[in-house]
Amino acid sequence: MELSKRVLNMSPSPTMAITSKAKELRAKGIDVIGFGAGEPDFDTPEHVKEAAKEAIDMGFTKYTPPAGIPELREAVAYKLKNENNIDYEPEQIVITDGAKQALFNLMLSVIEEGDEVIIPKPYWVTYPEQVKFAGGKPVFVETKEVKNFTLTLEDIEPAVTSKTKLIIICTPHNPTGAVIPKEELERIGKFCAERGILIASDECYEKLTYDGFKHTSTASISEEIKEVTVTINALSKTFAMTGWRVGYAAGPKEIIDAMIKINSQSISNVNSIAQKAAVAALVKPKDFLNDWIKAYDERRRYMVEKLNKIPGVSCLMPKGAFYAFPNVKELIEKGRFKDDFDLAEYLLEEAKIAVVPGTAFGSPGYLRLSYATSMENIVEGLERFKKAVIERL
Ligand code: PLP
């Protein structure tokens, strides 16, 4: 059977592959420490689980509207107003199978064959694959380590052509942990609004910021920027709900209606029970987050400090999300590794730690390590990293 060109051109997610490989090795009794997964190690809060159990007991187990249950669309509108200072009507919101499917539906709704989509590099692995799948052309612009990987208007401007349809902004950023300050978002937003370029604002890590940095939602900046922005978010990272698969998009009604239509002809709706749980997550107090953020912060500082003590490794202090993105170019050279893949493989074989090579994010010479794992794992894993490196040098 011949497969479609569309699917043959798509690469499978390398981060999911590494996570699966680490799990496979662990199942075989090999003591692998996983720094690959982008998922909180905390459990979903109890009141969220209770809401799901209640939904089952009440028989809330049938199809829902493809846009999501009205209660959840209202809860998202309430959240966006109260926490992000953006006014969206519930009709401007679609509930999706995680942020990943929100982005997928958006690409399929707005990209025409040959349209260009600007993607800052390093990038989250999924963006270019979804753009290509929708018939678009990814155009990469590089964010620089010397500028803390923060995206600026100057990075974007030279890449814009008459075919530019969309730009994907991610702040806080996966994999670099960079954040975009409000002033820069405003410059970028104004530029896009003037040219009618759509912005996909991926804000999945909005709550995970450190050192007093406060996240700004792109669409909150002005009405003109809001008109060209689709806000993408999910409950996955904030509420440790990666497996529940609930995300959402909010934006101009005609785009959201198109995304709902895709839901109606593909997934039908997001799991009814998970939607009820999501309502509880969004409207109930989020005090638990303070402890989680404190724990991430401690791990972040520890991990970066230890990484910087490994020969040939230098790592910036990330300002958000839960990833460290060390530069390992010197280590690759001095350790005579072929590239970052070779180094990651060596670390898996020799140190029994799973990390993601930077090439997966379009940036060779880096590694991504998630600190959404226990302090104990971080201490032990980085000790193994250092030992394996010293043995090699
Ligand atoms: N956007 C970014 C930047 C991510 O890192 C991820 C997950 O890793 C997602 C979107 C997808 O999140 P979800 O699990 O809600 O689909």
Kindly describe this structure.
The chain is an alpha/beta fold and 393 residues long. 43% of the residues lie in helices and 13% in strands. The radius of gyration is 21 Å and the shape is globular. The relative contact order is 0.16. The structure holds pyridoxal-5'-phosphate. The site of pyridoxal-5'-phosphate has 13 residues, from helix 5.
Structure described in brief:
The protein contains 15 helices and twelve strands. With 393 residues, it is α/β, with parallel strands linked by helices.
CA-CA gap between termini:
49 Å
* Record field, number of beta strands: 12
> Which molecules other than protein and nucleic acid are bound?
pyridoxal-5'-phosphate
Q: Low-confidence parts lasting 5 or more residues at pLDDT below 50? A: none
CATH class label of the largest domain: Alpha Beta
- CATH fold descriptor of the largest domain: Aspartate Aminotransferase, domain 2
Per CATH, which architecture of the largest domain? 3-Layer(aba) Sandwich
Helix content: 40-55%
Q: Which properties best describe this structure?
A:
globular, three-stranded antiparallel β-sheet, 15 helices, seven-stranded mixed β-sheet, 12 strands, 2 domains, single chain, Aspartate Aminotransferase, domain 1, Aspartate Aminotransferase, domain 2, 43% helix, binds pyridoxal-5'-phosphate, alpha/beta, 393 residues
